[in-house]
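$ ./design --mode recover --in tokens.txt
reading tokens...
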């Protein structure tokens, strides 16, 4: 549906009235702006691999493919979405610590560019699958280095973790993997952490990754065709947090590339991004059902909660404060301290702790900003069996429903009924 340009809040209210709440609304123009901003900061030839895990909507993936992104997947479901979105196998990498044989078979059969292996054992399994099919599979090795980034919201290296091959074991592991029949060893992958807001820290981390890659290449005698520098590009969620300085990234990464480009000549180099591209594009809308006071605390009870936006309820460790939120059309009123909760039967269903909102009333619309990444996809949607919310993309004057609202009957899909007589018959047999 084509809509003439209108103020954001007018659009949000209209969509909430037309499609009901809870509701996710994504601004595709913001996604495009963020993608173009990030790519403008990267040296010529660098690629962005969109991390599907942050928002696996088919329409979002299609938009990013149209913009020129490559893609990083972490499950069979994400690979199916990427292929359906039109990504070519040579633009797909797969990274996750627990790939099953069925998933690896799928990756092998589709011939994706790189399976980023996390252990020698995983590489051995991929090799056996390749031999069975009479093919050769490209793999890269994920390394858990001894360093970690300062200021990351969620650290993934430099500490014991299930991710990657320990740096101290890397040379022997790489040599063994490269010698395995059925495999073509092409590169290395390091992802140190997420939600980094200091561009200088991120560039210094990339420098360490490049140095490590060159050292491992020299020590193992293996040439590299591909280097995945990971990501971690952060966005500010609450007042006082610094915004990521894109100009600093552009300048310092350019200087870094100037120093290393000759030694990395001909190598495919990628960075991963999800949150930076998506978070600021989306809002979560919920309707205020009731307002009540209990033991000196005012509660705003909404029809959407942590089952559909777990990150705002502190169920993820990378955001340690309230998401920015407000009541629609009440921006000029004096505020008061409230707790914003959802409809679930648990005291953990608090999506806003001691937030300051305009005086709330039943029927108000709550807007949770910066909800485009790790919103619904990060949430325990089966808890209490509420239907999935509708998700809408607004882009260049068009509005597209990317996911229809669920219905209660969806929770019966795939289930088998329990019949006592059949059980008794089976026992007697």
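writing sequence...
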């Amino acid at each position: 549906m084509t809509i003439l340009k209108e103020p954001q809040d007018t659009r949000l209210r209209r969509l909430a009235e037309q499609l009901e709440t809870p509701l996710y609304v994504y601004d595709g123009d913001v996604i495009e702006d963020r993608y173009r901003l990030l790519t403008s900061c990267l040296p010529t030839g660098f690629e962005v691999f969109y991390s599907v895990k942050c928002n696996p909507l088919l329409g979002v993936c299609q938009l990013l493919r149209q913009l020129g992104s490559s893609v990083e997947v972490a499950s069979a479901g994400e690979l199916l979405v990427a292929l359906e979105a039109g990504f070519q196998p040579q633009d797909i990498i797969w990274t996750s610590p627990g790939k099953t044989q069925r998933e690896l078979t799928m990756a092998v059969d589709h011939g994706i560019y790189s399976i980023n292996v996390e252990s020698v054992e995983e590489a051995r399994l991929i090799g056996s699958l390749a031999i069975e099919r009479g093919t050769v599979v490209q793999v890269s090795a994920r390394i858990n280095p001894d360093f970690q980034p300062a200021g990351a919201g969620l650290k993934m290296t430099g500490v014991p973790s299930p991710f990657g091959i320990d740096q101290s074991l890397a040379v022997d592991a790489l040599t063994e993997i490269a010698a395995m029949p059925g495999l073509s060893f092409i590169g290395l992958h390091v992802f140190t952490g997420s939600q980094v807001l200091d561009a200088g820290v991120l560039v210094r981390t990339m420098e360490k990754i490049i140095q490590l890659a060159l050292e491992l290449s020299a020590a193992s005698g293996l040439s590299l065709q591909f280097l995945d520098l990971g990501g971690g590009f952060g966005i500010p969620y609450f007042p006082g947090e610094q915004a990521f300085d894109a100009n600093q990234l552009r300048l310092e990464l350019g200087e870094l590339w100037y120093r290393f480009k000759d030694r990395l000549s001909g190598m495919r180099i990628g960075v991963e991004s999800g949150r930076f591209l998506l978070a600021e594009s989306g809002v979560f809308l919920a309707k205020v059902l009731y307002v009540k006071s209990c033991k000196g605390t005012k509660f705003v009870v909404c029809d959407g909660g942590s089952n559909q936006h777990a990150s705002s309820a502190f169920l993820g460790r990378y955001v340690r404060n309230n998401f920015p939120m407000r009541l629609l059309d009440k921006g000029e009123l004096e505020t008061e301290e409230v707790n914003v909760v959802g409809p679930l039967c648990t005291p953990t269903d608090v999506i806003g702790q001691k937030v300051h909102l305009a005086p709330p009333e039943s029927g108000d619309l709550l807007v949770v900003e910066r909800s485009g990444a790790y919103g619904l996809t990060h949430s325990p949607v089966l808890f209490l069996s509420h239907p999935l919310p509708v998700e809408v993309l607004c882009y260049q004057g068009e509005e597209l429903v990317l996911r229809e609202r669920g219905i209660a009957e969806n929770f019966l899909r795939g289930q088998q009924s329990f019949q006592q007589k059949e059980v008794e018959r089976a026992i007697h047999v």
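exit 0
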